[in-house]
Amino acid sequence: MILSPAEVAARFESLGGGGLNANGWAFGCEFGFFQRHHGVDPLGLLRWASIAPVDLLRGLLCQFKGVEDEAAIEMREHTDWDWGVTQKTYRMYLDHSGMRRTEVSRDEAARRIARSLGRLRERFIEDLAVGEKLFVYRTYDHTLPEAALEALSGVLKRRGTGTLCYVQPADTDHPAFTAERRHESLIVGRIDWFAPQKGEMNYSGWEAACRAMLQV
């Protein structure tokens, strides 16, 4: 049976990701937009998060305990109209909250984000334990070493039966839209390019990369 693009997108849950730019860690929302493009809008703690590998690992190890602590939430004037969010404990950056700064005060926005993160954390812990989804992560400006991939996939395995799907750019030896299962808890997939590299979304590339990862 051939899965529709929406069915493909729904098989995965984002662990965020991204890379460094002039403003810090960013562009972790790319996979979330890919899902939305295909009409899939799952609830996810890290779906829109820009988060470095070391902070992701730290969060996974303690199941993101305290992520809902309002004192650790900083609202940022990131765009022209809405609040951006920094969760300082895990250095998670969310460029958009959807709350207009002209309509929602900084303190009220922080309270709402805190409540939301608490609910999403509970859902995330359940998803890790069930292990039905593939957890996708990517770093667009560098490739993670094997030790980092083993650490991340290892903690997913300890929390349940989840599989880490790490997506990186294609190279001479690894064509785009191919995937390799390194072991039970780790798949490495290849994509032709990431959005920040061309300044536009690569919906077709993500779909092809995800289909490849589902086949291994």
Describe this structure in words.
With 216 residues, this protein is of the alpha/beta class. It has one domain. 36% of the residues lie in helices and 22% in strands. The protein is built from seven helices and nine strands, in the order H-E-E-H-H-E-E-E-H-E-H-E-E-E-H-H. A six-stranded mixed β-sheet has the order 2-1-6-7-9-8, sandwiched between helices. A three-stranded antiparallel β-sheet has the order 3-4-5, with helices on one face. Helix 3 runs parallel beside helix 5. The chain is globular.
- State the distance separating the first and last CA atoms: 16 Å
How many helical elements?
7
How many discrete domains? 1
Q: What's the helix-strand series? A: HEEHHEEEHEHEEEHH
Total strands: the figure is: 9
Average pLDDT over all residues: 93
Spatial shape: globular
Structural class: alpha/beta
How would a textbook summarize the main sheet? 6 strands, mixed
Task: Determine Rg (CA atoms, Å).
Answer: 17 Å
Strand content: 15-25%
Strand order of the largest sheet: 2-1-6-7-9-8
What proportion of the residues is helical, as a percent range?
Answer: 25-40%
Which runs of at least 5 residues are low in confidence (pLDDT < 50)? none
